[in-house]
Structure to design on (55 residues):
């Protein structure tokens, strides 16, 4: 859910965080999610999309 909230935050602030086909997550999503307490890892097919809560 927090992953999607990072997308919502970016949308409301005019930050494009996915590629043109809404498939690949770029570094802007990573930056926003990490600024709000999540950990993000890179997936070779989906970009910065593997979202985890901190331990």
């Amino acid at each position: 859910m927090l992953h999607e909230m990072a997308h919502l935050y970016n949308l409301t602030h005019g930050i494009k965080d996915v590629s043109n086909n809404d498939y690949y997550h770029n570094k802007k999503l990573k930056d926003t999610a990490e600024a709000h307490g999540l950990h993000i890892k890179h997936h070779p097919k989906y970009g910065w999309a593997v979202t985890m809560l901190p331990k």
Observations:
- Residues 17 and 29 are 5 Å apart (CA to CA).
- Helices lie at 2-12, 27-35.
- Strands lie at 39-43, 47-52.
